[in-house]
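Forum > Structural Biology > Help requests

Title: Can anyone predict the 3D structure of Acyl-CoA synthetase FdrA?

Hi all, first post here. I have the sequence for Acyl-CoA synthetase FdrA but no way to get a structure on my laptop. I'd be grateful if someone could post the structure tokens.
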Amino acid sequence: MLKTLVKKGSYHDSVVLMLLTNHIAAIKGVKTVSIMMATPANKDIFKQSGLDTEELMAATANDMVVVADVDDDSLLDTIMSEVDLFFQNQSAKSADKKSSKSVKSWDKALENLPNANLAVISIPGAYAALEADRALDEGMNVFMFSDNVTIEDEKKLKEKAHEKGLVVMGPDCGTGIIQGVPVAFTNNVAPGPIGIIGASGTGIQELTTIIDRLGEGVTNAIGTGGRDLSAKVGGITMMDIINAMESDEHVKVLIVISKPPQKAVREKISARLSICKKPVITLFLGEKPEYHEENFYHAYTLDEAARLAVSLVRKEAVKEGMVNVDNSQFYCADEKKTIKAYYSGGTLAGEAAMLIKDALQMRIPPQKAEGYMLKTAGHIVVDLGDDVYTQGKPHPMIDPAKRIECMQEAVDDESTGVVLLDIMLGYGSHEDMAGALIPTIKKLQEKATAEGRKVFFIATVCGTRRDFQGYDEAVSKLTNAGVIVCETNKLAVRTAIQAIGLDFSDPEKEIRAKEVKKVTAGQTSEKLLQMLSGKPRIINLGLKSFAEVAEKFGCETIQYDWTPPAGGNVELIKTLSFLRHYEGFDIDEANRKVVAKIVSGQPVIKDVAAAKTVIKELEKGKVILHAGPPIAYRDMPDTVQGSCVGAVLFEEWADNEDDARRLLESGEVTFIPCHHVKAVGPMGGITTANMAVFVVENETDGNEAYCTLNEGIGKVLRFGAYSKEVVERLRWMRDVLGPTLGKAIRLLGGISVNPIVAKAIAMGDEFHQRNIAASLAFLKEVAPTIVKMDMDEKQRGDVIQFLSDTDQFFLNIMMASGKAVMDGARMVTEGTIVTAMCRNGVEFGIRIAGMGDEWFTGPVNTPSGLYFTGYDGEDACPDIGDSSITETLGVGGMAMIAAPAVTRFVGAGGYEDALRTSTEMTEITIDRNPNFIIPNWSFKGTCLGIDARLVVEKGITPVINTGIAHKIAGYGQIGAGTVHPPLECFEKAVRAYAEKLGFSL
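Reply #1:
Sure, ran it for you. Structure tokens for Acyl-CoA synthetase FdrA below:
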């Protein structure tokens, strides 16, 4: 029975998940299991394996999915425990290593390593091309380990790189050495004067390790990717690197290696190499050259190419390799024994197939089956690194399971005389592949002996004595286990062929005069020469081990902890790419202008007045302003409808609840969003004609904004309460509190808000849930004037007492200030900065600078947090209110770190969680506000400028601190917590803005 476990938002790279799959598969009772990220491509793999489930299909690219075939449901707990333990162990291993600094975005990576010149990309192919494109835009060369990139994308990337004087190595580039630094699956090779360019990963490894063991070295070995020499791509990378290596004074001999290239491309490459001023060795696998040319040599095998290169460097002959073996036990040809060869990569497998065909004197190529390099007359050569074996499974370089299975099948075949294999050492490979295979080899030897048969196990070890696995140790283990070990693949294959009574010819070639073609060398890129002449400065996207190795070799490295942008939605990724590359104007510059407007904003409290005197729409009959984007009364949650009832009773449009509700349902009352009339309203947001409102002017731009006065906490109108007590308090605020404050503020000539905020943030306020310091600072501003005013003493005392008791009083001032400043910023009519966020209990709405007054909405979430005694999450009303204007301004939840005292109250765990939250918010903002400095954040300013593009790209939504209202009107506030907007709002905004600028899929 298929069972599915989904870990939301838990991204891990494919290699780690492959190893985890093997680990879980070993649990007794697990018939089949697959663990992958739920990307579209991986979902197809699940389907092909018969492991697709509804839960899997509903998961996103950032979700890790475990699909297991089990009969016992209790195994699910065991599986998840093992999964958690596996990742704990992975974390512990990483903690033991000195690892590179980790970031979660390109912006942070470039901020930390602005002079980076190489992006190493090992992420799913569906996204690799897009990230490679970004790297090229940032002036970086690209090493693309990722596969499954379309050839169309490869061509575009390589053409773009060429135009910029850069290079794209790959896709599916498994091996590289740059200034002696191993990149990806590479060996620890001594630096030296031999340069290598290869459309082959394991081929480069074989060449470099032979050269190393012969006592010479390779400083630069550049992989091009297997399709570079295809007709469609045309050898773009190879041609550019040939130019660069010819100009590199440190390269004395150049080797060019490729699997069989397209004919026209091969001729273009050969023509270019014919005019090279340095000795060149070519190896086009599958071709059997009959001669060399002067300074232009044509090798048949990797062994020959390596020895030729060393000979040319030393200017002396290098001896051929020998195999120390007793061949008296070998089979005769007429015994018709067969070779079963199992390789880690295509190049060594291809070379083996070529040599075996040569020995079999096969003139017509045999029919190849999927995954096989050769399958004829019982002989097989298998590339275990082929997609057919590795799709959703670990590569044979790191996992012995498939090779063990193959060797067992080989020995079961009585015709088998030789089992031939390679052992790949180096970074990225298994820590002890020889040791992992030896137990099986011994069992199979014993089985063959018991059956009266001989099966020769012959191996080549591709590695150096500096590789962490140890070349000599691996050879010794295999030899002691009865394996015939040969120092190169050619020698291993020849020994295997000889073991079944055959051989191939390898005559010495004559050297002819070089045929120089009439071609012109391309211009050498200075950027490529710079890359080849110094240790690369790397931004690593994907496998952390690649960064760790580079660091060991002295490279500056930043680990970009990549996750699929935009939730893995390719359409959105392309939309973001369009906006990043938009040429009509600089969107980043427009965003900076919006932020500059925010920073320059000067909100000043000018007055407290009756709402109808400043909001003209309230003069037109029965009008109620509400929070959030537009909504009809019938659609409002019960809490907000209760606030409306209270407003009707306050305005005396009805004198009881029933009549009030009938009026509200009649259509006689007009409902307008606060934001549409320069206002904001807390929670329900309800504002009517005679309510007292703060009048705040942004003196920088001359625009005003309005907000009602804070009623205190508990059973209040904004939380849906409408009792007599609530209504009477509103009337007192209308008749006493409002006029008193209005007069005091006018006498003071206005009160600047920014100085109060700057003081209060240093005293522990974040201005959404905690406003104690700011409220007291406001009281400090107005109290001396109120004390001197000519008014009733009781009323004076009540006003002072109310201000003293209402810790949250400043919140509404901050809301009006935020609205005034953000409306001023909205005068910049381009860009993707969020200029408003609000919610009406059903929809969450945002605006962005470039889309003016248009709302982009999605379904609201329900806050999570702490509840007053007797209440829990089941009692909570969905998210409501305009107070998230504070987060738009960069305070509130965005500045959680400023108010450690409030973090527990809003559901965060404490200081560390507050720090984590605010730090995460810097991932989606473009700047900091120098006006509002947070002492316990190393005196950094609040994060500022929510960029909708970054929200969509990273899947990080702004955190909002908020009160929690009961879902039934009349109960009032029942707690406080945090809430996030739906990502959908930001996705809609980004799509709409891109379409406005001309984007279409």
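The chain has 34 helices and 40 strands. The chain has a mean pLDDT of 92.
Shout if anything looks off.
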